[in-house]
Amino acid sequence: xxxxxxxxxxxxxxxxxxxxxxxxxxxxxxxxxxxxxxxxxxxxxxxxxxxxxxxxxxxxxxxxxxxxxxxxxxxxxxxxxxxxxxxxxxxxxxxxxxxxxxxxxxxxxxxxxxxxxxxxxxxxxxxxxxxxxxxxxxxxxxxxxxxxxxxxxxxxxxxxxxxxxxxxxxxxxxxxxxxxxxxxxxxxxxxxxxxxxxxxxxxxxxxxxxxxxxxxxxxxxxxxxxxxxxxxxxxxxxxxxxxxxxxxxxxxxxxxxxxxxxxxxxxxxxxxxxxxxxxxxxxxxxxxxxxxxxxxxxxxxxxxxxxxxxxxxxxxxxxxxxxxxxxxxxxxxxxxxxxxxxxxxxxxxxxxxxxxxxxxxxxxxxxxxxxxxxxxxxxxxxxxxxxxxxxxxxxxxxxxxxxxxxxxxxxxxxxxxxxxxxxxxxxxxxxxxxxxxxxxxxxxxxxxxxxxxxxxxx
Length: 458
Prior knowledge:
globular
């Protein structure tokens, strides 16, 4: 907006003031006015409140661990599993009674039920060295390593988003690093940041047509194999064998060989435990009412944990989600749909269809989030650049606050997260930002070449 500073009175004035007024009369002065954006202010206040509450929770958890009291829930199962295989009792790794005995021996505080270890055998061997330490130093060491990993992921995302304007890019990175999923993954001693690293690295390598390396990178997600099922299905539809074969080789090396070397019956024991896991509920300290999926909503709303109450709805959601993704995955092979969109749907799919899901796994939302950010803020997208950036920042801050509120509601009242998840999935499927048509990825070449962004690397 341009305004002119006109002389408002003709009274005598000092020579200096007279010169200033004369200059004002001679030519207008351009003044940039920034309108107050109530939505951005509200979003900022809500995000600040959520951040304070998150930091208070982190401080309380660390203080309890340092004080030798209540520790993190999930890490005790990893710690116990490491102890079981390290001391030569690997054949009993998936025996709940053995897990409970070891957990109660080493856990510095009491708990009602056993925290079951269900991860693959190779993960137990990774935690074996930590089991040599007392519990508190072990969990603090793991938390420190996960924090370093998070810092590395922030840096990697920052490089990937180099073409995005600084303001929304930095807000996105801050929202990611301080979000409830990322923070929860650290303070409960989980492995979801490693899964995130594999999914993100696989995407970045596919963008560069490093198909074999992408398959190896995706194997990092095998800490929780169900979280990579959407990507595997997508690659099968694409017949992307140059990625699938290295992934299968890595999966064999990680999932099969360590299990056979530890004890020949462990694969069957793990499968048997996983088969009964969805119906375990509170018998294994599974807080199913707080899960951010359809199961969590039904259990928290009805107070009933029967599998037959929530399973039909989950199957309907799974069928609809797969039916939405499949035609887009097929269209991507001929360039009809951006490969970026296909990957986003593949990452989101297990978050909708998995019967066992917790807050920390929602960190995967930031992979399609980063892909969308590049698409929404394309350098060639036109329009008012500042207005568009402020709109994106507003949305990001609201998402940050919503993640905390949804988590709090899940642990205190009712789990509603599944509904925003379904909305995000629908938006990725039907409202993907338009851009330059991607090069065709034919069934002959199986190339993953998402929409290029001007001015942005890889």
